[in-house]
């Protein structure tokens, strides 16, 4: 290989190295700020494609163009009505001005830290300026019956004037006012969870349990009252039915006795032969009902039964 070829290869290698150092690719999810000796050069690059910079002198700083997540730490905050609660929040944010973002915050880690300061502070301020019910509920509730006579659920709740959704919206708007010169915008802010501190939580659970027990006791009392009424009506109806049945039975028995007495009287009013036949038939019926083949009896000679037995002999 001669000297000219060596020089050409070296030149091509240097040129390729310079192109490699000066070219960079920006994809659809990125935006770039080019700096020279630590200072931004020109406008931020927000369109995708192949881009160029001065090699060795200029550097590229890539930033996310998509929505990013901020997840806050639970903070203990006192409400306006002096109730201590844990508030857990999250937000979605985006870099809208990469150049201003680089100047003020340098990178995404710095942005997360600054957003945490802003959002936590605004959350604390707005929660502390409203009662607990305002932070928990969004709208007022229509009272409904609890099932206990004369009691309504919801009629004792505090009237909501602001509500949770509006508080979240006010926190987001106030945070964006503070972040106007940071090159970012808070797209959404939500209170993820609200809970009492452990000491207060135990008191709340005990109060809820007592309230449920009170309602259950009222249900039981109403049930016992209804049961007493039903049992009283049952006893009254039973006594009435038994009295009517006893009266009907007595009437039937009285009629039967009257008919039997009439039959007896009619029988005795007939001739002597008829009375003798009637007495004989009644005696035979007595024999049939009283004695069987193994029965042994002792009768007086004056007994009416003996008279018939003697005649049969």
Q: Care to describe what's here?
A:
With 313 residues, the protein is of the alpha+beta class. It has 8 helices and 11 strands. The strands form 4 sheets. Strands 6, 7, 8 and 11 form a 4-stranded antiparallel β-sheet that branches. The chain has a 3-stranded antiparallel β-sheet with strand order 3-2-5. The radius of gyration is 54 Å and the shape is rod-shaped.
Task: Summarize the topology.
Layout: H1 3-22, E1 23-26, E2 30-36, E3 39-40, E4 49-52, E5 58-64, E6 68-71, E7 75-78, E8 84-95, H2 98-105, H3 108-128, H4 132-136, E9 144-145, E10 152-153, H5 164-178, E11 184-196, H6 198-268, H7 272-290, H8 304-312
Antiparallel strand pairs: 1-4, 2-3, 2-5, 6-8, 7-8, 8-11, 9-10
Helix pairs in contact: 3-5
Under CATH, the homologous superfamily of the largest domain reads Band 7 domain
Which CATH class of the largest domain is shown?
Alpha Beta
Cα end-to-end separation: 169 Å
CATH topology of the largest domain, which one? Answer: Tetrahydropterin Synthase, Chain A
DSSP helical segment count: 8
Average pLDDT for all residues? 81
Q: Radius of gyration, rounded?
A: 54 Å
Tell me the number of strands.
11
Q: The biggest beta sheet, please?
A: 4 strands, antiparallel
Structural features:
3 domains; 4-stranded antiparallel β-sheet; 3-stranded antiparallel β-sheet; 313 residues; alpha+beta; Tetrahydropterin Synthase, Chain A; rod-shaped
């Amino acid at each position: 290989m001669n000297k000219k070829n060596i020089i050409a290869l070296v030149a091509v290698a240097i040129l390729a190295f310079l192109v490699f150092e000066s070219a960079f690719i920006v994809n659809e999810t990125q935006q770039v700020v080019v700096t020279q000796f630590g200072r931004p050069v020109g406008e931020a690059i927000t369109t995708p494609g192949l881009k160029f910079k001065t090699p060795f002198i200029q550097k590229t700083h890539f930033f996310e163009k998509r929505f990013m997540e901020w997840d806050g730490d639970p903070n203990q905050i006192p409400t306006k009505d002096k109730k201590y609660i844990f508030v857990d929040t999250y937000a979605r944010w985006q870099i809208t001005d990469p150049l201003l973002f680089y100047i003020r915050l340098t990178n995404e880690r710095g942005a997360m830290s600054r957003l945490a300061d802003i959002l936590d502070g605004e959350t604390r301020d707005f929660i502390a300026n409203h009662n607990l019910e305002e932070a928990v509920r969004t709208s007022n509730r229509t009272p409904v019956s609890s099932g206990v006579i004369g009691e309504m659920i919801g009629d004792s709740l505090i009237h909501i004037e602001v509500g949770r959704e509006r508080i979240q919206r006010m926190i987001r708007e106030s945070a964006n006012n503070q972040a106007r010169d940071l090159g970012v915008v808070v797209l959404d802010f939500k209170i993820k969870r609200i809970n009492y501190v452990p000491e207060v939580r135990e008191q709340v659970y005990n109060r809820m349990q007592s309230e449920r027990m009170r309602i259950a006791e009222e249900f039981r009392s109403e049930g016992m009252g209804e049961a007493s009424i039903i049992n009283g009506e049952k006893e009254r109806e039973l006594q009435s039915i038994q009295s009517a049945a006893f009266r009907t039975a007595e009437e039937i028995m009285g009629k039967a006795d009257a008919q039997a007495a009439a039959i007896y009287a009619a029988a005795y009013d007939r001739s002597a032969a008829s009375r003798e036949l009637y007495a004989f038939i009644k005696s035979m019926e007595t024999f049939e009902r009283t004695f069987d083949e193994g029965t042994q009896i002792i009768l007086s000679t004056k007994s009416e039964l003996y008279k018939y037995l003697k005649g049969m002999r």
